[in-house]
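Backbone description:
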Amino acid sequence: MAVTARAFFYIQQVELLARRRIEQGLQDEAITAGQYMVLNLIVHHEPVSSADLARRANMTAQSMGEFIKAMETKGLLERRSDPNNRRVIQVSSTAAGRAALVQAEAKVDQIEREYFGCLTVEELAQLKMLLNRVRTAELARLSG
């Protein structure tokens, strides 16, 4: 039986290596790669419910709750009841959270340039386009 490398294997390996690089690069910022992703989502969609954040990040509500709690403790975000539905908790970034995101973005920009430095500008654009196509198709399949 011939053994062939699966695209899933490459995707998983690249994701694990990328996460490791981001974690290392953000150590000085006292923020994890996961917290960076969540903070980025919050800043771009705030105020946002924790349930909506979990959906956007493809996480369970419980995992998102743990992220939110840790980030609230660090002063990066705040939670408030939605004035229209008191059962819904809205999450927003704080000034410290937005400042942390700016610092983290600068580091992640540098990490991304280094990480994908083996590709030409055109190859990186094509990679992004192909990955987005696969992601969009899978999201459509899951919602349909």
Q: What stands out?
A: The chain has a mean pLDDT of 91.
